[in-house]
Amino acid sequence: LTRKTQTFMQIHKDRSVNGVPVPPEQLQDMAERFNFVSTSSHSHLIKLEFWEIKYRLMAFLVLAEAKLKSWIIKYGRRDSVELLLQSYLSFVEGHRFFDQYEIIFTALKQAAEVYVKSDSSIDEAEGVSKFLTETTAQWKNLALEVRSVRSMLEEVICNWEKYSSTVASLQAWLEDAEQMLNKSESTKRDFFRNLSHWIQQHMDMNDAGNFLIETCDETVSRDLKQQLLLLNGRWRELFVKVKHYARADEVDKLRQDYQDGINTLKMFMDATNEKMTAPIQVSFLNVRAFVQDVEEIKHKVPAMEAASKAASRTAQLLTKDTPQEEISQMMTVMASIKEQLSKVRERCLPLLRESQSLLPPLEEMERNITGFYQALEKASRITSTTDSEGPVDFKQKCQELATFTHSCKKCLTVIERNHQTIQKVMSTSKTLQHMDMSLLQKRVADLQTSSQNMIKESTEWRKHVEANSSLMKRFDESRVELEKVLKMAQSCLTERGNPEELLKKHTEFFGQLDQRILNSFLKACDELTDILPEQEQQSLQETVRKLHKHWKVGLNYLTVSRKPCMSLSTKPAPQ
């Protein structure tokens, strides 16, 4: 259109075409017509686009309906139905049938919206709206029918498969069954024991056959009717002669169901009696496990009662085909089980309530037993050490020992209180007679003994450490006094001056020296050696030898130094 516009503008300008003049009236007419085309071309294009998508959608729906008609037919045999299903899947899934509709319809709605806006005609807008509404309704019905085609085809194939398999198996069984009629009674009873299975097979064959007769074409339906007529005739003729064996099979199944139910109930009762009456040593873990067992039994009782009722109904059904003696035995068994179940239900609640009441005190006992032994272990670490302690360490360890001892006493008090609570429950209980308190009593007695031993060991440890500290203190005091004297003696011996004055001074000092200082030190050393471990005795002995040596050296030096001084004092005075 743009190119045409440029050409016309050139003609209008030149007033001629290829040099041939164009009358003004003709040019004016062409201009008016060209202007009309130019202004209306856009709306025409919008309208044409709407119509194109509209007819494309209509063609899609026509094709879909044609396909639907080709699928909704009277069917043939299985292979032809499978071909129809393949054709359906190829068209619907292979060509994305439903997705294609959504794409086209979405494009149509968008084009319709633009078209209605560009055309101010109310009639045209109403026509477009009506078409969209009708198309939506048409598609809804069409889509529903198309989707149902697949399930229908699959159901037809399934019935063909069921019909073919049951016909084949039933024909083979009928051949064997007809020959079995001439056998002995025991052989026939054994062969027709599963007659109920073939009754069900016969019903399945007829159900599938009747479905196929209704859905298949006339030729196939006629063949199916003929085949069913022949097989049902053979079946009726045989069934009249052997139908009484079906009851025998039914009775066998009832007997098996009854026996299975009784076995289940007996197993439950045996397990329940074992759990409820087996001896149990009273402890938190054992009682908690027992409570869980009783809760499980309580939850199973309703199901077992239902199983008992089912077994009773089965027993009633067997009365017509069971000897009177066996019936009496069955009734006795059922009455016994019913009575046992009633007793279990009666026992569960009080047994559960009383055993649950033991759990809080037992749990608190276990917690405090753990705390007791933890404190006892820490106290034992202190009392097992007999080394001499300094005043500060001794005081701190005494405080720690007192804390641990108090913890043990506190835990033991809680344990004994809970033990009494448990004893009270056990003495008044009528349902917990199978629970044994001996192990718990032994544990409490062991705790009491351990507590008494700890108190005794703590007292002995304190006395021993105090005695050791006293010996250490006496040794330290005597050592300090001895070292002080030796230091003074050493100072005297190293002093320089007038020999006579020094002699006099030394004689005076050593004359006052008390041998008891050394004796006191040696005695304290001997006493301390008795309590010290071997690895520390050597160091003590070295200290003693060193100080003793210093004492002897001082005395020897005094004796030697006095002789020269005496010889000097006896010499004549110089002239």
From TrEMBL:
Secretion signal, residue range per the UniProt entry: none
Keywords of this entry: Membrane, Phosphoprotein, Repeat
Matching InterPro entries: Spectrin_SYNE1
Ranges of residues in domain Nesprin-1 spectrin repeats region: 60-246
Pfam family, one: Spectrin_SYNE1
Predominant cellular place of this UniProt entry's protein: membrane
Cellular localization per UniProt: Endomembrane system
Xref: PANTHER family: NESPRIN-1 (PTHR14514:SF3), PKA ANCHORING PROTEIN (PTHR14514)
Name of the protein in question: Nesprin-1 spectrin repeats region domain-containing protein
Source organism per UniProt: Xiphophorus maculatus (Southern platyfish)
